[in-house]
Write a structure and sequence with these properties.
Elements lengths: L2 E6 L6 E4 L2 E13 L5 E12 L9 E8 L5 E3 L13 E4 L4 E3 L4 E10 L8 E5 L5 E4 L9 E3 L11 E4 L3 E6 L8 E3 L5 E11 L3 E10 L8 E9 L5 E7 L5 E5 L6 E3 L4 E10 L10 E7 L6 E4 L5 E2 L7 E9 L2 E6 L15 E11 L5 E11 L12 E4 L5 E5 L2 E5 L8 E7 L16 E6 L4 E9 L5 E11 L6 E4 L8 E4 L1 E4 L10 E3 L12 E6 L5 E6 L2 E4 L3 E4 L3 E2 L8 E4 L4 E4 L1 E4 L4 E2 L3 E8 L10 E8 L5 E4 L2 H7 L28 E2 L3 E4 L1
Parallel strand pairs: 1-12, 2-13, 15-26
Antiparallel strand pairs: 1-3, 3-9, 4-7, 4-8, 4-10, 4-11, 5-6, 5-9, 10-13, 14-16, 16-22, 17-20, 17-21, 17-23, 17-24, 18-19, 18-22, 23-26, 24-25, 27-28, 28-50, 29-38, 29-49, 29-51, 29-52, 30-31, 30-50, 32-37, 33-36, 34-35, 34-37, 35-36, 39-48, 40-44, 41-42, 41-48, 42-45, 43-44, 46-47, 51-53, ...
């Protein structure tokens, strides 16, 4: 017999909607004709069933639609209201919808939830027994069986009415990471905020953007906010900030941030920075937030409810650094390929580009290049130096080969160790080997070379290294050799610069540093910084005689006018702290535009007797580049009051959020040597 089977569709599912919502999909029903005959559905009656508390007036303008495979809706009826009796119903007669034999159609009940509906009421629409009529191909009702009824009569698909939806805000997952910006630049991406709406769409028409600290107000001239409105148009607005570091945005209805129901919208915030001349300070930290409850306003587009706060705390972005210049780094396109180098002296092994941005001219103070790989270089090659050249081909820094020769003392025993002893009869035997550099230690008894990284360099006693050698007797005939391009876990240092870790007084013989990496025994050390009154001075310490991880011992400091350098001078006029710098072997190369730096050196011995060995150079992190945003300005400041320049910049966030620049490490090719 012809049969029409009715079942509850998988969509729509239960939902919460707000008052004054329109075109809400309440329930869906599958109507399937068996293979005996085409069937024509002539009438269908919907019944409102309670799922707690309901009212026939909670729903209006009920219509039936056929939902097509592509998701579109095709109207089947005009709108109906519910009857006001104890079992409210909506009757759709003269439906005359054909269901071809063997096929299924989906009918969806769509309705409005009026503003007069009662919040928290819950109801469902279903089909009671005998509430569908259908005819066969000959127009007969008596021959047609309707199965599956009732449907959703103890409703499992329900609508819950809410007085209003809710709006939340959080930091977007793609918000800009901590970056470096230069003064006087515009369009710096600082913070992305994600709005999320529940139960209805919202429009944000007022919001306030603020700096983390009001003292940062002089860094920023204005904020630019970009978002999409309800029409799908991108809107970009710019507002100046006040002396408290805030900027308020207000737009008319239809031009605000559109947040779709059960969806998200992103507010992109960019900072337009003041120049130094208009008040910006170098060396400051800039955090930018969305204020959660000050000058905030949003409206629910269904309920028309007004929201004046979003969350319980400001939505905070990353902390960005602001300097009077910006330095970006990339591996140069001309850096050698894996097969582009042969062993021998004067080989170009690595090239990197530095690009300057901003209103000042940055100066490179020092560069640390990580050298890794598997090759063992020739320790007898006394010409095994490495040089750093600027774009003009001029050498701006050199690291020389050092042979420490035979240890001269023995600790005895065969055990895991991280030390090698020298008798130090020649007090200069270790001069020129930097902390953190790779060395080759030769174990004479095992006739084996080990590449290790220098950890400390004492004036007497044992040199320490990492990692440990598993079985090593530290014999009197063992040797240690520094070849600047020897691969290992350490770095090749062209100069060294580090923030001062404590005040330095005139005639002091020790100086506390943030790190001694790159410093060597025998180096002459210079410290530049400000006194307690802001006077910029220098102290020199002629010869380093002992190095731990953070302390250098040297000849007595000779400071300008016998004054003391304050390691963390507080520039109270700009609410920033400028840390003094200690350096050796200053590169001192100012960068304008883009400059290519070239590392050359001696790779003698890299080719093995058999197999393949490698040497690879990279700038591992932004902080491996020590630079300054106007060294010449600091030179001009000598013996004068401190002006607006950072003594040293080492920042791991270089390249972040910069178009065309990849993040660190900046890695050259693995140079390959075939035996």
């Amino acid at each position: 017999a012809p049969t029409l089977t009715v079942s509850l569709a998988s969509t729509p599912q239960s939902k919460t909607v707000v008052k004054n919502s329109t075109d809400v999909e309440i329930a869906g029903f599958n109507l399937k004709a068996n293979t005996v005959s085409d069937l024509t559905v002539t009438s269908l009656t919907l019944t409102q069933y309670t799922a707690g508390t309901d009212d026939y007036q909670d729903v209006s303008n009920i219509r039936l639609f056929e939902k097509m495979a592509d998701g579109s809706l095709v109207s089947l009826t005009s709108s109906k209201g519910l009857t006001s009796n104890a079992t409210p119903t909506a009757v759709f007669s003269s439906l005359n919808k054909v269901v071809t034999m063997g096929n299924t159609i989906k009918v969806v009940a769509v309705a409005d939830i009026p503003s007069s509906a009662t919040a928290t009421n819950t109801f469902g629409l279903g089909i009671a027994a005998s509430n569908i009529s259908a005819q066969d191909e000959k127009g007969r009702t008596s021959t047609v069986t309707v199965s599956g009824l009732p449907v959703n009569n103890t409703p499992t698909v329900v609508v819950t009415i809410a007085g209003a939806g809710s709006l939340a805000a959080a930091l977007d997952g793609d918000t800009p990471t901590a970056s470096v910006f230069s003064t006087g630049t515009t369009g710096n991406p600082v913070t992305d905020v994600r709005f999320s709406a529940t139960n209805e769409a919202f429009e944000v028409t007022k919001f306030q953007i603020t700096t983390d600290n009001s003292s940062d107000a002089d860094e920023v001239e204005s904020f630019t906010a970009t978002y999409t409105n309800e029409a799908g148009t991108e809107v970009s607005l710019t507002e100046s900030i006040n002396t408290l570091g805030t900027a308020s945005f207000a737009v008319t209805s239809g031009n605000g941030v559109y947040v779709p129901a059960a969806g998200d919208a992103t507010l992109h915030i960019k900072a337009n920075l003041n120049s130094e001349a208009t008040g910006a300070d170098s060396g400051t930290t800039l955090g930018v937030d969305l204020d959660f409850d000050t000058n905030f306003e949003a409206f629910g587009l269904g309920s028309n409810s007004r929201v004046t706060s979003v969350g319980t705390a400001n939505i905070q972005g990353s902390n960005h650094a602001v300097y009077a210049a910006e330095l970006l780094a990339n591996v140069s396109t001309t850096s050698p390929s894996s097969s582009g180098v042969t062993e021998g002296s004067g080989q170009t092994v690595f090239q990197f580009d530095l690009t300057a941005k901003g209103e000042n001219t940055p100066s490179v103070m020092a560069a640390a290049v990580t050298v890794s790989g598997t090759a063992t270089l020739d320790t007898t090659n006394a010409t095994g130096a490495a040089t750093l050249l600027n774009s003009s081909g001029n050498v701006v820094a050199t690291e020389s080969y050092v042979s420490a020769g035979a240890a001269g003392v023995s600790d005895g025993g065969s055990a895991s160790t991280t030390t090698i002893g020298f008798d130090m009869t020649d007090t200069t035997v270790l001069d020129g080997i930097p902390i953190g550099a790779n060395v080759l230690i030769y174990d004479a008894s095992a006739t084996t070379y080990y590449s290790r990284t220098i950890a400390t360099l004492p004036s007497t006693g044992d040199v320490t290294f990492t990692p440990a050698i598993a079985s090593y007797d530290d014999a009197i005939t063992d040797t240690m050799t520094y070849l600047p391009l020897q691969p290992g876990s350490g770095k090749l240092y062209f100069g060294a610069a580090t923030p001062l870790g404590g005040n330095l007084a005139d005639a002091a013989t020790t100086v506390t540093l943030a790190s001694t990496a790159g410093f060597a025994l025998g180096d002459s050390l210079t410290v530049r910084g400000a006194t307690s009154t802001g006077l910029v001075i220098e102290c020199t310490m002629a010869t380093i005689t002992n190095l731990t991880a953070t302390v250098a011992t040297a000849s007595a400091a000779a400071c300008t006018s016998d004054l003391t350098i304050v390691y963390n001078y507080d520039t109270t006029d700009s609410n920033t702290v400028q840390t003094a710098v200690a350096y050796v072997g200053l590169i001192g190369e100012e960068v304008s535009g883009t400059e290519t730096f070239t590392v050359k050196g001696d790779l003698t011995g890299a080719t093995p007797s058999s197999g393949t060995k490698t040497v690879q150079l990279r700038i591992n992190a932004g902080s491996d580049l020590s630079w300054n945003d106007d060294w010449s300005d600091l030179t001009d400041d000598m013996d004068n009051a401190y002006e607006n320049t950072s003594f040293i910049i080492q920042n791991d966030n270089l390249n972040q959020e910069e178009t065309g620049y990849t993040n660190f490490p900046q890695t050259g090719a693995a140079l390959s040597f075939q035996g």
